[in-house]
Fold this protein.
Amino acid sequence: MTSARRRSLLRLAVTAGLATPALLRGRPAASAAGNAPAPSGFRVTYFAARPGSGSRDVACSPTDATVWYCGQRDGTLTRFDPRDGSLHPVPLGPGAAPHGVVFGPDGALWVTEGGQNAIARVDPRDFRVQLWRLPEARANANLNTGAFDREGFLWFTGQNGIYGRFDPRTERMAVWDAPRGRGPYGITVTPEGSVWFVSLAGSYLARIEDRETGRVRIVEPPTPRQGARRVWSDSQGRLWISEWNSGNVSMHDPRDGSWKVWRLPGERPRCYAVYVDEQDMVWLTDFAANAILRFDPRSETFLAFPSDRPGANVRHLGGRRGEIWGGESGNNRLVRIETPA
Amino acid sequence: MRRPEPRPIAIVAALAMGLAALPGPGAGSAAAQDTVAARGRAVFEARCASCHTLAPGDEGLPGPSLAGLIGRRVAGDPGFDYSPALHAAAARGLVWDAAMLDRFLADPEAMFPGLWMGENGVRDAADRAAVVRFLADASRR
């Protein structure tokens, strides 16, 4: 690769004042059938998704072992059961191209369904699908990601320049223009209940400060044009951001307004997904390394979990206690990393 | 960034793929041309513009510039780091023309498995033809 944008780790670390973490690669653990070599203490397992599905964003059931994923290419939300490997696709409608999925407080799955420009609800008991389309004036919003706040409102982003709020109780939807237009991508809710989103094309973090008017406050990350793609809150309400353009992971602490930035390992990382687990370990994906990474904020070290197949393209990570899940969109697989107790 | 000159192959390919059915430069009414141009721009705005610019150079977007795309080799924005899938295509000497762009937009993942772009294709053939024409026209400017 040749690139005018390529910068060495050392040079960036010096000019941007970045921390310089170490990359750890643990010794391979004994691998059982169906498992891949993994750093010691971890177990990585790959599962087949539907062929041609483009398995991407995932949601782990809070009540059973199942994991649901968006089949962006086959227009389904599909339930996967790791106990027997079974797949149950739920077609979302003509032209469906689901991007994001989260569990709601009602136990249903809520999908940012870009293909039909709608918020979709899937009942996990009877697989009934309900759609609420965006207003006609908001056609082609390119719906991206959703998150529920503590009051039960679904907040969502649309990459073509909107963010919005949906109330499942009243079925009322509000949609607002995003600052700087195109770009709203990942969205998250902190433990204390504040809603934040990031803009990939706009390269910012924003807090939704007024939930009635939609007024937002932009918080500028320290790296210009960083391409903030996804955001996740840790248990302290700190915001962890995966930066696609810069290849950094950054952290903003709203309590004191501080930022910290770490460059991912490798020559030209491309940081796509971020998820923070119950131990406040930060999980990332790097497309250039074709790997899932675990970043330990205490030791400031990375641990790499390269895929066993090229072109995995894990675009989203989710999880539950002891398990990290992702969709290998490029391989039509799901990947699970079981973490040490 | 130097813009490549339009290549005859793009015009030939456009005819071969049925783009001649669309009003092009020098053919059809101005109104029909405007309609196709508007449709192509609308498809570009709805499906492409959140990640790609038509301006040369780096504007901080997550995808490469599409300036001068037609006639340019695959993975041809020198300021962008492409996926291994597109680097492999570039190593095979592939050059964007209208026909290849149409096939790509129909199902990007099918043409280049493992590419980083996460979009489904443009399913409607007329939409696809219009945005191909729009990008071809932009390449000539």
In short: Chain B has six helices and no strands. The longest helix of chain B spans residues 30-47. The interface with chain A takes residues 45-47, 49-51, 58, 60-62, 78-85, 87, 109, 113-116, 118, 120, 123 of chain B (CB under 8 Å). The radius of gyration of chain B is 14 Å.
